[in-house]
Design goal:
Structural class: alpha+beta
Radius of gyration: 24 Å
Number of helices: 19
Largest sheet: 10 strands, mixed
């Protein structure tokens, strides 16, 4: 009898009970956070995504939780205040994935940009590219610090002259005049954080349901037409409120629902990941955040033993593939040379590349860098049946909790249901009970390390937060062994992810359940081994397993620039 995977069962359950009070279309971080918020209120809520969970715009972030210092120049003081507040909050409620990030801004001028800044503030036009000098950045950081008054989640900024700056970071461009250092936060595994938020919602009970690889393709009198993209099955799903959180695809989703809209105007941002020990050491363990000579704010920072470089801000046609171009890579290399002139980087250092389109509002002739990163909610009748369609326009990772509380508040009002739970200060997933002190850390390892050993318990705590406890229980229920081609993971751990986290395709595991692809840790042999572990859990036969390996290899090569066959050939030399 064919095995039905957990993800298959979740999709089938929607067709078996095709209704809910609320249907959320789009399982990026904002849709998932809204799902969690509603589930905590006891609302009958379902979330679907045409692809995997958190596989669209939310999977292409700069891995930062930040207050958005540059939004001050746009006059978006409300957004900066909310962003700083939410950043400080996430450091407390998601400490397993969100960590303080020391950030250094190199400056090559004292007064540059002072006269142009008011014009940019008033008109939102970029004008001639001009570096922001030390005075302007100092004013911005003083304002930025003023928004963070919650007992010191992060230290205040510091300014340093050339001599002290080069003592701290000697590989910086010696032509600099000053550096400023302040703190934001890093998010070292955004996909896993989103999956934690999703699990929080699912754990509230049977009234909260989620299914990936389910696409909204139309609307009829019985509800939204949903298509299971694995089997091709279609069915109508009834809901009183339909919430469109499909990010840069919002207008396309509305069009499919018969509600044409022109809300969106997202811009493409690309990143590359380098395996470059010399550059990694040069960062001093912190982010380098600066302005390139074209006026674009860019970043270089260490992450998972690699160096992440980003990002661009380019107009993009959503009907076209979203890819990192060779011109963008050349752009990144030029900016590294600008800040670290004696460090050589080339394409041989790249282990991964990724691109996404920001879910920004339509902006016509407004310069991309000045388009608001704030969000709004558009409401309209469903049309084909009674009910309300809410469309989310905008939003970003940092503010996902506050945004979800706002959006779910509107939904609760439509349903006539009172709020019973606030998510403010509510720990997320593996952040619950996370050991915040060295003593608590030692106690946790002592309590959980007997069966798997303390080094392994530590690795799992780093990877999953306190949810590692449940994973350790699963690992010890049957014989386990490290993967032959990556001993940092074990066979039972991969099996757990497949069973508990709706893995449907091999690529889901490589890109979103683990960071294996991000750090350049893949080989053809490892893909074959992983497919072999997934096969009995997901019901794959030999042909399906081979097809999954081929599909994953193709996506890695075409979308992320990872050619495993070429890499294996080089390693064999």
């Amino acid at each position: 009898m064919p095995v039905s995977s957990p993800a298959d069962s979740a999709r089938s359950a929607l067709a078996a009970r095709p209704s809910a009070k609320v249907l959320i279309i789009g399982a990026g971080i904002n849709g998932i956070a809204t799902f969690r918020d509603l589930a905590l209120q006891g609302v009958d809520v379902t979330i679907v995504d045409k692809g995997d969970f958190v596989s669209g715009a939310s999977a292409a972030s700069s891995h930062m939780i930040h207050g958005g210092i540059r939004y001050l120049e746009n006059g978006e003081f409300r957004l900066v205040k909310e962003s700083v507040t939410e950043r400080n909050g996430l450091l407390k409620i998601a400490p397993h994935y969100v960590k303080p990030l020391k950030t250094t801004v190199p400056m090559f001028s004292a007064l540059s940009g002072v006269l142009a800044a008011p014009l940019r503030f008033l008109t939102h036009k970029q004008g001639k590219a001009q570096e922001r000098g030390a005075l302007l950045i100092k004013v911005g950081l003083v304002l930025y610090d003023s928004f963070s008054r919650d007992g010191g989640s992060v230290p205040k900024h510091e300014f340093h002259g050339r001599k002290k700056s080069l003592e701290r970071l000697p590989r910086l461009n010696p032509g600099l005049k000053y550096t400023a250092t302040y703190y934001d936060a890093s998010m070292h595994d955004p996909e896993r954080l989103a999956l934690d938020v999703l699990r929080d919602g699912l754990d509230t009970g049977a009234h909260a349901r989620a299914a990936n690889y389910v696409q909204a393709v139309g609307m009829d009198a019985d509800g939204v037409r949903l298509r299971n993209t694995v089997t091709g099955e279609e069915f109508s799903f009834a809901a009183d409120v339909v919430v469109n959180t499909s990010g840069p695809w919002t207008d396309l989703t509305n069009s499919a629902l018969g509600q044409a809209s022109t809300y969106m105007g997202g811009t493409k941002g690309s990143h590359i990941v380098l395996d470059h020990p010399e550059l990694l050491a040069a960062t001093g363990g912190g982010e380098i955040f600066f302005e390139n000579n074209d006026g674009r704010i860019v970043l270089i920072y260490p992450l998972a033993g690699r160096v992440l470089i980003g990002t661009t801000d380019l107009e993009h046609d959503m009907s076209q593939p979203i890819r990192t171009t060779e011109d963008e890579i050349d752009y990144f290399f030029d900016l590294v040379k600008h800040v670290f002139p004696d460090i050589v980087v080339d394409r041989s250092h790249i282990v991964f590349r990724f691109s996404g389109v920001r879910p920004l509002p339509r902006h016509d002739d407004e310069a991309p860098g000045f388009v608001s990163r704030d969000y709004r909610i558009e409401s309209s009748p469903l049309g084909a049946r009674p009910g309300t369609l809410l469309s989310l326009v905008g939003g970003k990772w940092t503010t996902f909790r506050a945004l979800a509380e706002h959006l779910s508040g509107d939904i609760l009002t439509l349903l006539g249901v009172p709020r019973t739970v606030s998510t403010e200060g509510l720990a997320i997933g593996g952040g619950k009970g996370y050991p915040a002190t060295p003593a608590a850390h030692t106690v946790w390892l002592a309590a959980n390390g007997d069966e798997v050993g303390r080094p392994r318990a530590q690795a799992l705590l780093t990877r999953y937060g306190t949810r590692a406890g449940a994973i350790i229980d699963f690992l010890t229920e049957a014989p386990d062994a490290p993967l032959s081609h990556n001993p940092l993971y074990t066979r039972r751990e991969i099996e757990y992810l497949a069973r508990e986290e709706s893995v449907t395709h091999l690529i889901d595991l490589l890109l979103r359940r683990t960071s294996l692809a991000f750090v350049g840790g893949l080989t053809v042999a490892l893909l074959d081994e992983l497919a072999g572990v997934l096969a009995p859990v997901l019901g794959w036969d030999a042909a399906t397993s081979a097809d999954e390996v081929a599909q994953a290899s193709r996506e890695l090569r075409e979308v992320h620039g990872v050619d495993l066959a070429a890499t294996d050939a080089v390693n064999a030399l």
